Amino acid sequence: MSDSDILQHIAHLRREYTRGGLRRRDLPASPLTLFEQWLGQACESGLPDPTAMCVATVDASGQPWQRIVLLKHVDEQGMVFYTNLGSRKAQQLAHNPRINLLFPWHMLERQVMVTGQAEPLSMGEVLRYFHSRPRDSQIGAWVSRQSSRLSARAVLESKFLELKQKFQQGEIPLPSFWGGYRVRIDSMEFWQGGEHRLHDRFFWQRDGDGWKVDRLAP
After folding, report:
1. FRET partner for 28 with CA separation of 20 to 30 A, picked from 21, 119, 158, 178?
2. Does the annotation count 88 as an active-site position?
3. Pick the catalytic residue: 197, 201, 206, 215?
4. Where are the domains of the chain?
5. pLDDT tens-place string over residues 113-131
């Protein structure tokens, strides 16, 4: 298929969404309850990387940026992820803590979007998680100055082997430039695919100590 054929073909790519709907009568009082149900179903479904979420931040000029990050914890306090504190996302969050998360569970015909504010995790939280990671992942955190320019992949591999030898014995220390964030949730939107593009969308927004929920048009 030529490039021009492919471009014409994608305009007509579509499928029906038939896995089921989402009705107001089935909604729990808290969106986090529904999120935990959906996350559990995503994990049980065999979906690759069910905790993968697209994280959107905005730089000082107003330019949005996106990348995939793994969710590592969720509770009533918010959603947690870890990263290099020198990364582009960390620099942008220092300037503007507003953040958007998207869980694209395509195989289940579902999406969940989250808006909120990111706040740095405590040193204790970061340290506990860091030492729960495989040793090679801990060393990888030391190797990568995330988002910095590299001349070649060999630079990374050489540094990894050097540090693996250095940290061969004992506990690997926590890098000062590595940490994490908790996203304090302001709103959550749940999308369930529906037939004839009549998708179900429910939008929760904080309302005092509770939540206000509205059905949105597809």
Report:
1. 119
2. no
3. 197
4. 15-131+174-216
5. 999 999 999 999 999 999 9
